[in-house]
Write a structure and sequence with these properties.
307 residues; alpha+beta; 5-stranded antiparallel β-sheet; 4-stranded mixed β-sheet; 20 strands
Length: 307
């Protein structure tokens, strides 16, 4: 009997060979060996403690910054649901947000509570768990600027409380999260007192700016590459001639391209496979390296087996 026949009992859902494409913004990718949807934190902890240590575990948020390869993902993929999406204002201009809460929800609820300084999350696609992993941010603000502490589980189910300093944030990265696989449960954030109407107006400005400059209604993953020091990735992609240029390696149609609206947004126009999207990204990286001598680093997380 394989490990899939020896899984711990759960109160949530265990789905075998579940396609993951529908869980991502790109809408591509193969199945998870097992997809686990825990009912609550206790269900998740018990599952982790009972899972064989050799089984790989991968966290999947709302899939806004993730490309699942066509061959699917080994082991168990965990996706947190409503039980992990609470957002609650606290005293002292602080607010708690669960890992499954959308970044935009945190911004909105902070605004309602008169907590200023978190408006930038209105322009960040994805959920709080991903924001903690990659120090998400936009328009000059980052998670490290507003996070007090985060709550997480180790692979074995041990609970952790981590300060901002312990997460060791840098540009689009938490060194602690990169060094040790963590399952984030949520975070405590702090802003400052503000007028809800003024906060709402700033969020409206962010929303309008995104709609004018980013292909937010396409099948995309947000920013594809991190900005190299002293450079803008979109300019490098554009200068290399890849803006709006169709691409395919699968032969199933030229459905992958960098958006004509924003050249650092990789999009699936409807026919692309994960191999097409990743292949386009690698082709662009090679071209920029040859033309400009600059190494573009992926910001989109790519996981799983090749098709």
């Amino acid at each position: 009997m394989s490990w899939r026949g020896r899984l711990p009992a759960v109160r949530g859902k265990l789905l075998f060979d579940e396609p993951l494409g529908p869980f991502t913004w790109f809408r591509v990718g193969g199945p998870a060996d097992i997809l686990f949807l825990p009912q609550d934190e206790e269900d998740l902890v018990a599952f982790l403690k009972g899972l064989e240590a050799s089984v790989p575990v991968t966290l999947l948020g709302v899939g806004s910054n993730t490309l699942i390869r066509d061959g699917g993902v080994d082991g168990v993929v965990i996706r947190l649901g409503k039980a992990f999406a609470a957002v609650e204002a606290r005293e002292g201009s602080r607010i708690f947000a669960g890992a499954a809460a959308l970044d935009a929800t945190l911004a909105r609820e902070a605004g309602k509570a008169g907590i200023a300084g978190l408006e930038f999350y209105r322009g960040v696609p994805g959920s709080i768990g991903g924001a903690l992993v990659m120090n998400a941010g936009c328009y000059g603000s980052e998670t490290k600027d507003v996070l007090v502490e985060a709550y997480a589980l180790r692979r074995d189910g041990e609970r952790l409380k981590l300060s901002n300093a312990q997460l060791d944030f840098s540009y689009r990265k938490s060194a602690r999260a990169a060094a040790e696989p963590l399952i984030f449960l949520g975070g405590l954030f702090e802003g400052g007192p503000g007028d809800p109407a003024a906060i709402g107006a700033r969020m409206d400005e962010i929303t309008a700016r995104r709609e004018q400059t980013q292909p937010i209604r396409e099948k995309t993953g947000g920013s594809t590459f991190k900005n190299p020091p002293g450079h803008s990735s979109w300019k490098l992609v554009d200068q290399a001639g890849w803006r709006g240029k169709p691409f395919s390696v699968s032969g199933k149609g030229e459905g992958a391209m960098f958006s004509p609206l924003h050249a650092n947004f990789l999009i699936n126009t409807g026919e692309a496979t994960a191999a097409d999207l990743e292949g386009l990204g690698e082709a662009v990286r090679a071209d920029v390296r040859a033309r400009a001598g600059i190494e573009l680093e992926w910001e989109i997380r790519r996981i799983g087996r090749p098709g």
